[in-house]
Design goal:
213 residues, alpha/beta, Rossmann fold, two-stranded parallel sheet, 5 helices, oxidoreductase activity, acting on the CH-NH group of donors, NAD or NADP as acceptor, NAD(P)-bd_dom_sf, NAD(P)-binding domain-containing protein
Amino acid sequence: MNITILGATGSVGKRIVDEALARGHEVTAVSRTQAKPGAFPDGVTPYAADVRDQRQLVPAMEGQDLAISALRPPEGLEDSLVPLTRAVLESAASAGVRTLVVGGAARLLVPGREGETVLSSPDFLPASAIAIARACQAQYEHCLRETGVDWTYLSPPAMLEPGKRTGRYRLGTDTLITNENGMSRISMEDFAVALLDEAETPRHSRRAITVGY
């Protein structure tokens, strides 16, 4: 497949790029400014575009099989996540490209907490994570209203950290996935595996899913 990846220099984005390349896909990596030599692995086509400007972004998607948005705003700019996601989805709709969105865990129900979500459950999140969690919830709600493009929203578990690629994960929908010890986690490497599995075999059109060990 020919895949356009936004947020390709981020922690998750880099692993998505690596997984896509390892599977033999052609990757176009979008960054706001012209990428410096060596910024991306060999085989990646760099593309400079302001994500918020459809005139710049649509050409990066035209003729592609898939777009993946792994965008994450820096601390203090969390409110920009929804406008960025809106711009990505509108550009993808114009280009006629299916889109996978790397989302957040805010929307997920917490097991054993009577309908509370990661965001609404008292004391579940540290104070430092509240702003990005609220932004991710708003991002998810925006996706639900989007009808012009075929999207899938992929939520991570509570803990998403660098680690090893095992190729194993469990798939869920609206509830936080936990293991036998009550932990909710996955490595960024295996999160990328799950994302590329959905890319190659689409099963969740206009739906949100989650993964975990």
